[in-house]
Write a structure and sequence with these properties.
Length: 687
């Protein structure tokens, strides 16, 4: 049922965010004041009606659109674009009371009471009927309104429901996938503990009161939850497409939220958007955090093959739900906003415009505080972003060219983290992928973040840490990539299970064995404080030398066709290989048998990037804590130079003079950046 995509592009960067005027229903003067303040803050977009269902349909079947009519008209009159939400993220009390089936049932099989949000069953026919009716009403009424530019589906789809309707949908989904119970029993290896199913009705979703440790079942349940959420999302899109065919759709993602495989949802969306709430100035370093945020921005950009995304939500100051709500230090708001843009966002949007007077988010940062005027530090920070976005407006819609892809795969994470062994703690799939991404971020080398189903041919280097699950056809596609000249990096704990979570027989890394040219006989899980070392062989082709610490995981591998680049220093497997390279066709496959720390990853990837001639943003690598990203369009490049450190940094930008669009200064040579300072240089492509 997925329909044709609708193209989405903006004439200028969006600067706006969640606007909830229905909370200020009784005070029309606030509505009026909002318009004045929006002009002052340089707001050109608002996201509305996200939680407005009870204001739009106060009683079943009675719609009240007057307030939204007024709002849409006012926005159009003031050249403010509207992103209109389908208000299905939270339902009215009357709806839950009349149709209790819409309320979610937990894994413990208890039905929730009315309240909170995102508390609904994605299967319920009643919920789908009522949401479709609402969406149709919105589409009919506003589909041609000049202010409407984008649909915002619901809000942060997430969670799962275990009601009877969902159980039976799950069973149907399983019948479709397996065809027969024999196939299902085999895939889930149910003879283990004698759990063989003899009727589809016996199958229940994972539960603390039932089974939580049948890995095949847990994995399929997670897949089902994604598919069912997607199915619900499609049912939301249907009336929008039918009555407002030209308006594109998005839904706001939550970064690397574990509960949904966003790659599946991405296909039905016209533009990706996500909500980013890093905890700046927490006890860790802002530089480390910035690299993690960069990773998630890159993932969101990659979800639609590099198309610009939207930063749908961010806080203009603080959140209220994090352990400590520390104020953003001067400079951080502009820096973190432009970081999103540097990685491909065509917007900076906030949650929210005006701080709520009551409710659980009354202390969540907003552009307009309870003080109600523009004379605040936060308001000035927001104005500064407006000015910055205006000065780089030409860059809207520009692209990023990445020759490196770091592989981050939801199903792999589900399977790897759902399994028991080889350690319970610190398997750390995501932090490990981020650690492998980090050296590229440090060097100013653009990287995409993809899953194992994407096209590999556009990259020169693919880094696939802990590729525990290898789905059908993936090793063949990787082989094709390497044979054609690509470089692949694999690590320990790869090629262990197939897409049913059944272990490959015949030796790890399973289907990757020929590619890696090694057989991994066993994996040693180290205690938290244990350290082994990896010693580089003399005259290895990478030119690396010395020794590096290894922690937590050390595999004992036997090279079959691979060349040994390093060996272990100690323990009973001292002198055995710890790093290998295998030549396959015109390409190479590296295998890291142990978990290496940042110093090795840094040296290894710097050397490899150099050997492969990967394009860097600047001729000289930036100093520590400075990130450099490049967007380009029609022969022009915008180089974002961002200092996430608390020190002044000097960055060598090369001898060609170019303009820093933010300061309107011509610059060359050494560029000085204040702590949390940022510059956006405009230069001709192919400098
Ligand atoms: C999420 C939600 C918003 C708001 C913010 C607060 O992203 O989508 O409605 O609750 O968190 O940080
Ligand atoms: Zn349900």
């Amino acid at each position: 049922m997925s329909e044709r995509p609708v193209s989405f592009s903006l004439p200028h960067f969006w600067h706006g965010g969640d606007y909830n005027p229905e909370q200020w229903w009784e005070t029309p003067e606030v509505w009026q004041e909002d318009l004045r303040l929006m002009q002052l803050a340089g707001i050109n977009e608002v996201s509305v009606a996200i939680f407005a269902w009870s204001s739009l349909e106060p009683e079943e079947g009675r719609f009240e659109f007057d307030w939204l009519d007024q709002l849409m008209d006012r926005m159009a009159a003031h050249q403010i674009d509207v992103v209109l939400a389908t208000p299905t993220g939270a339902r009215p009390a009357w709806l839950a009371a009349r149709y209790p089936e819409v309320l979610r049932v937990g894994a413990d099989r208890q039905r929730n009471l009315f309240g909170e949000r995102h508390n609904h069953c994605y299967t319920s026919p009643q919920y789908r009927r009522l949401t479709q009716r609402m969406n149709r009403a919105l589409a009919e009424r506003y589909g041609r309104h000049p202010a409407l530019k984008l649909w915002h589906l619901s809000n942060e789809y997430g969670g799962e429901c275990h009601c009877d309707l969902c159980q039976s949908a799950f069973r149907q989904w399983l019948q479709q996938r397996y065809g027969s119970l024999d196939r299902l029993n085999h895939a889930w290896w149910t003879r283990f503990w004698g759990h063989t199913y003899t009727s589809w009705d016996q199958i229940e979703s994972p539960s603390p009161r039932g089974t939580g440790s049948l890995h095949g079942l847990s994995l399929d349940w997670k897949r089902f939850v994604t598919d069912q959420t997607l199915d619900f999302m499609r049912s939301e899109i249907e009336p929008l497409r039918a009555f407002a065919a030209d308006i594109p759709v998005t839904t706001n993602f939550m970064g690397t939220y574990l509960g949904l495989n966003y790659w599946k949802l991405a296909k039905d969306l016209d533009v990706i958007s996500w909500d980013s709430y890093p905890r700046w100035h927490a006890s860790g370093s802002d530089v480390d955090l910035a690299a993690q945020v960069a990773f998630t921005h890159d993932l969101n950009r990659s979800l639609k093959g590099g198309q610009p995304f939207l930063l749908m939500e961010s806080t203009p100051s603080v959140t209220n739900w994090q352990a400590v709500s520390k104020l953003k230090r001067p400079g951080m708001h502009l820096l973190s906003s432009l970081q999103a843009v540097a990685h491909g966002s065509d917007s900076v949007q906030y949650f929210q415009w005006r701080k709520s007077r009551g409710g659980s988010e009354k202390f969540h940062g907003a552009v307009v505080d309870h003080a109600g005027h523009e004379n605040t530090r936060v308001f000035r920070d927001v104005q500064q972003v407006a000015t910055a976005l205006k000065s780089i407006n030409q860059a809207v819609g520009s692209q990023i060219d990445a020759k490196v892809a770091v592989l981050y795969d939801w199903e792999n994470r589900w399977a790897l983290e759902g399994a028991f062994g080889p350690r319970v703690e610190h398997r750390d799939y995501q932090p490990t992928v981020e650690a492998h991404y980090r050296p590229f971020w440090d060097q100013g080398i653009a990287a995409d973040v993809i899953d194992m189903d994407q096209d590999f041919s556009r990259y020169r280097l693919i880094v696939a840490p802990m590729l525990y699950m290898v789905r059908d056809g993936v090793s063949e596609r990787l082989e094709e990539f390497v044979k054609a000249g690509g470089t692949l990096v694999l690590t320990y704990w790869s090629g262990i299970v197939d897409d049913s979570d059944l272990c490959f027989l015949g030796g790890a890394p399973g289907p990757l064995r020929a590619l890696a040219g090694v057989w991994s006989e066993e994996i040693d899980a180290l205690n938290d404080d244990d350290v082994n070392h990896m010693v580089l062989e003399s005259e290895n082709p990478l030119g690396l030398s010395g020794s590096y610490a290894c922690h937590l995981f050390c595999e004992r591998i036997h090279p079959e066709t691979a060349t040994v680049l390093a060996h272990y220093a100690s323990d009973f497997y001292a002198d055995e290989p710890a790093l290998t390279v295998n030549d396959v066709g015109r390409g190479h496959v590296y295998y890291m048998a142990a978990r290496n720390g940042p110093s090795f990853l840094n040296d290894f990837y710097r050397t490899l990037s150099h050997h492969l001639g990967l394009p860097t943003a600047l001729a000289k690598a930036p100093p520590p804590g400075v990130s450099v990203e490049v967007r380009h369009k029609e022969g022009v490049e915008w180089v974002f130079v961002m200092n996430f450190s608390e020190q002044i940094r000097t960055v060598d930008i090369g001898s060609t003079t170019c303009e820093d669009l933010l300061s309107a200064q011509m610059v060359s040579g050494n560029l000085r950046l204040d702590p949390y300072g940022v510059a956006v240089l405009k230069r001709t492509k192919g400098r």
